[in-house]
Every structure is written in structure tokens, then in C-alpha cells.
Amino acid sequence: MATSAELSPEPAGSDEGPLLDVRDLHVEFRTREGTAKAVNGVNYSVDAGETLAVLGESGSGKSVTAQAIMGILDSPPGFVTAGQVLFQGQNLLTLGAEERRKVRGARMAMIFQDALSALNPVLSVGEQLGEMFTVHRGMSRKDARAKAIELMERVRIPAARERVRQYPHQFSGGMRQRVMIAMAMALEPELIIADEPTTALDVTVQAQVMDLLAELQREYNMGLILITHDLGVVADVADKIAVMYAGRIVETSPVHDIYAAPAHPYTRGLLESIPRVDQKGQELYAIKGLPPNLLHIPPGCAFNPRCPMAQPVCRTDVPPLYQVSSTRASACHFWKECLGESADNT
Amino acid sequence: MSDSTLEPILSVRNLVKHFPLTQGILFKKQIGAVKAVDGISFDLYPGETLGIVGESGCGKSTVAKLLMNLEQATSGEVFYKGQDITRLSGRALKAVRRNIQMVFQDPYTSLNPRMTVGDIIGEPFDIHPEVAPKGDRRKRVQELLDVVGLNPEYLNRYPHQFSGGQRQRIGIARGLALNPEVIICDEPVSALDVSVQAQVVNLMEKLQDEFGLSYIFIAHDLSIVRHISDRVGVMYLGKMAEIGTDAEIYDHPTHPYTQALLSAVPVPDPEAREHRERIILTGDVPSPANPPSGCRFRTRCWKAQERCSQEVPLLAVPSVFAGQDTPAAHESACHFAAEKDVVHAA
């Protein structure tokens, strides 16, 4: 794993200073059972107004990467061991705790999956929203409350003036997620990281929330990192995708290309394994086996024990991110074959 | 599959479950009721899969419990081969339950952590010793493990030693232990990762063919339900909105709620995103303790008129389609039923 530093090329499309540029990020968790290598050399970038979807299953390191970017990693046991997080050219990892706090919330904000546990149950929604302004902007409580109402109207919570006094448990799941979005939007950050923002919601509510998020993003020209496992949501909103597996990016691509012809067998397996609402399919393709234990990541390509295309070289050599085109990259020794087969199938 | 010459194995007629809302501690006084299930009828035929979809709170899990007689129905009947199981108790109920088994959503909490896998799968034999005589049980449990694709040597392991997907296989093995005819699956794959979901869905389909099982498959994921079901029922706020074959419901929905629900499901195809019509519903699902008069969907429906608030629409083939040989002629509880394809790009 130590070799990955020199293997990773620049992510595609990063020539003119992206909003956020993550370079060769490594995160590990030191536990009693050993060191779990959660993130092993992740590179990705987001421009203003752009939506990057980070796709992966549980344990792929997609959320840990986000926590490291935000600076909210539980440490210990989690440690960033290498890499850079360049936010408008400035490496956040070298900042002190105080400076970091000024960035967090004001310039980049996060939306969490479970709004009920992310919100404080004993403070009213208005107080929690207002806190953004009293803490970061030094406003009076009265002004902060007015701002809170404005925000709630902005995310279309009905009867905001009355509901500002209510507590999180008095809101429905979709409304709570709107409060989370309002809180993230409060200080008009340049970047929002949304970690599975709609996973806990019903589909009709999910559609409402994703619509709102996309609208706000357009209006404020924010960069958005959408962390998800849902290939349908990605296809709906993303501009580009980074697919993660066992703490690495296995494929990055603009959204249209990857669905048309994936260049990594893992991506292809994921796309083939999901049933679709618009087709009655045959038997589902199932990726055999299980995602690896991060304490014992297989040598070579981490996906090799589950890969239908694996060759001896896959068990020994970690594949670098090969440049597939000017905007695509795949960490598979046999990306050409994979791309060829994918194209045949479509 | 829904061959009308066959006798249904399960027949549900006007099933109702109201949970009383009470006030006071010593002298409880009923002040209302949560109408979780409010008059539902459907049939399940041998060897078929009936999918039941709906958003949280629509009563789909309560239906599952009523079918098992785990909850006492307020009124209505559930006929298993002509016998009303809502009125059974004691030995007669026990005999029926042998033939109707359940697989639960959460494979983490539905397996006792202190029991070995062998004991978990073998426990049904303690209650129904006639199925497997004492000396035979170990062998039978190993057979079951093999059937669901687990190593028969794992008999003495504990649930925590298995992954989510493997645990769900254990849950399925337990459901199969008594050779039931009907298995009620309540969100059986929603806690699993995408790549593992496909494995479990394929397993369930294989077992259905092998043992001639009938499934009631309850889920909120419309894509999975389409994949596995022969017929699908859509529930909203304790009532069935629409029921029909998978193609009738997904390709020719006539109920506005079904149309909204389907249009909100993201399709994993970025090409479709500009071309699909999205129906974004406003507001949240009303409380089942105080459902709207008339049609329950009218508060969120764009077609609602005066008649909808006064007259409860019955679940029947809409009169506009009656007698016609069209896929739109299936049961739909809407006064203004009209066909609309929302799943496929225009």
C-alpha cells in the first residue's frame, strides 16, 4: 500500500484550480485488532457549480474521506496519514484547529444522512439554525432568529414563523432533512458535502429534497459532493462520478460515459446488479463474495477475489489509475477489455 | 401466474387494523385510533409473488403481521385455503403457522445473538417436532444451510460472525425450515448493500422455483419489487390504491399516487433524466390517526375534485376501462383513473 503515492495521476479536469482538490489522501483507523486502512490514496476534485457523486458500498471509505475533508474525523482512532485537501488552493490539513473551524460551516458545510440524530433534540430548530449566525457572524439572538425564519422559508418549510419554535422530533423526516439543508446553506458556503442525504427518506420525499438541493446549488453556484450508494440518484443529478472500493477510487468519469460503458469490472458489476423500475429484467447479475475486511485488504487489486476478469497480475500488482480518456480514469489492469465488453453489452 | 382457475392460497378480505389511542393512566379512555390498515382485500395464488409497495406508515408491515396473526385484526378475514386464520387460536393456529413463515427486514436484530446458527435454524423444529425427528435435526439444519448457500460446517457459529447478506440467508433458512407454502418477506433486502442485494434476491427466486413457494414481498424499493413480483399492490395510508400484474402497474398505472411514486424513482440512466416526467408531490403523508375524508390521497393529488372528498373510491376496474382488453383495465381506487406511463422516457 505504501507504493500508491507515486501511482496516482492527477484527477481529470483539474487544470485551472478546482474549488476542492483532494490529493492522495490516506486515512487509517488504529484499533485493538490492528490498523484498518479506510482510505488509501484518494484523488478527486470539484469545481464551483459542479456535482461530484462519490459512489460506494458500506466500508468503501466514501464517508471517511468526507469526514477528513471536513475535519470531523474521530481522532483517535482515525488518523490522516498522508495527502492534501486543497480548498481554493489552501491545504486544510495543515491549518490549526481554530482556523479549520472558521472554514467549517462558513465555507464548506455537510448534510448528514440521519437528520434526527444530527440535530440536537433539546434545542428548538430556530435556535440551532440561529446558532450559525450568532457563532460565526456574531449576530444578536433576535437577528439570528429572523435569519432562521428566512432560511426555513428558503427551503420551503411551511409556516416557518410558527415552526421555528418547534423541536426536531416535531418535524417529519423530509422536513428535518430540509432543516439540515437550511443549516448547511446558512452561511452560503462554496462547497456542500451531502452524505447519503436521502437514504432514510421515502421516494416521493427523496425527489422533493433532491430537487431542492439541486435548485439551491444552481442558485449559489456551489460545489456539491454527493456521497451515495444509489446508482439511480447519481444518474439523476451528478456531473461526474468517483466509484470507491476498499478505500480507493476505482473509476472516475463524467456521468454519461460511465453508465454507457463502465471501464472497471466493479462498476460494471454494480450497474448490472441493480433491478430497474422501467424494465422487467432477467436474473440479476450478482457480484460474488463480500467487500474486503479493511484490516486485511487483499494484495494487488482489492477487488481481485470478486472479479470475473482477474488474472495473476491482479493478485500481485496494485493497479494505478489508468487514463482512459481525457476525462476518465480506471484502476484496472484490464480496463481496455472491460470497456470493450461493456460496449458489446449495450 | 394469477391464473383464475387456481384457488388462491391466501385470501384477504376487508382486513382492518386500528390501534387504539388512549388517554389517562388508571382509567384509560380511547380518544381515537390509528387506522394502520383500513379495509384491504387481495388474493395470493400458489407459486406467485405478490409485491406490496408503499411509503413508510402506509401499513404494509402491519399487513404482514396480520397475515401471520401476530396482530389481532380489528375486523376482516384472512383465509388460508378457505380457513379464516384471524379467528384461530391454540393448536389450529399453530398448524396454520407452520405453512406461513416470515423473513424479517433487519438481519442484525432478528437473529438471537446468543444462539448458534444451528439452534436458530433448528428452533422451529422444537415447536413442530413432527417435521424433523430429534435425531434428524442436525442433518436437516445442514441441508438448509446448504440450500441457502452457506457452508454447512458453520452450524456452531454465532450470528456476529456473519456479514449482513449471510445473516439474511440464515433468516431465510429459518423461514424454510418447516417447508412452508407461503413466506412473507418484510423488506428482506433493504438493509443490504447493492452487490449483496442481488445475491439474496436471486437466492429467493431460486428457492421459489425449487420449493414452489408463494411470496408476499413487502418493500419500499419499487425497482426490486418489479424485479421479483408477478403482481403488485400499491398501498397508501392503510388502503390499497392499485393492484395488478407488474406490467399493468409499472407500465400502465392508472392511479395518480402510483404514477407519482413511480415517477419519483430514479432510473440508473443519465440519458433519461431530461426526458422523464417528474411528478413532485407536495406535502407529507397525512396522519393515519386522522386520515382525509373520501379518497385518502386527495390532499396531495393534483386531480382532486369535490367528489374525492365525499366519496371513498373503491378498488375496482375503473368504469372507463371496464370490459376493454387493455393493460389499463386493472383494479385502481380512483374516481378519475387515467393511464399514464411515467417510468419510461418520452
Describe the structure.
The complex is a heterodimer of chains A (346) and B (346). Chain A is an alpha/beta fold and 346 residues long. Chain A folds into two domains: 4-107 and 191-276 and 283-345, P-loop containing nucleotide triphosphate hydrolases (Rossmann fold); 115-186. In chain A, 36% of the residues lie in helices and 21% in strands. In chain A, strand 1 and strand 2 form a beta hairpin. The longest helix of chain A is centred in the middle third of the chain and has 18 residues, at 203-220. Chain B has one domain (10-22, 33-332): Rossmann fold (3-Layer(aba) Sandwich), CATH 3.40.50. Chain B has a seven-stranded mixed beta sheet with strand order 6-7-8-3-9-10-11, sandwiched between helices. In chain B, helix 3 packs parallel to helix 5 and helix 4 (137-147) crosses helix 5 (164-176). The longest helix of chain B has 18 residues, at 194-211. Chain B is globular, with a radius of gyration of 21 Å. The mean pLDDT of chain B is 89. The chains are: A alpha/beta (346), B alpha/beta (346). The interface between A and B is large, with 45 and 44 residues.
- Unreliable segments of 5+ consecutive residues of chain A: 1-15
CATH architecture classification name of chain B: 3-Layer(aba) Sandwich
Q: Which structural class best describes the helix and strand composition of chain A?
A: alpha/beta
What is the radius of gyration of chain A computed over CA atoms, rounded to a whole number of angstroms? 21 Å
CATH superfamily of the largest domain in chain A: P-loop containing nucleotide triphosphate hydrolases
Number of helices of chain B: 10
Subunit arrangement of the protein: heterodimer
Q: Mind summarizing the main beta sheet of chain B? A: 7 strands, mixed
CATH architecture of the largest domain in chain A: 3-Layer(aba) Sandwich
**Which term fits the overall shape of chain B?**
globular
Average pLDDT of chain B: 89
CATH class of the largest domain in chain A: Alpha Beta
What is the share of helical residues of chain B?
Answer: 25-40%
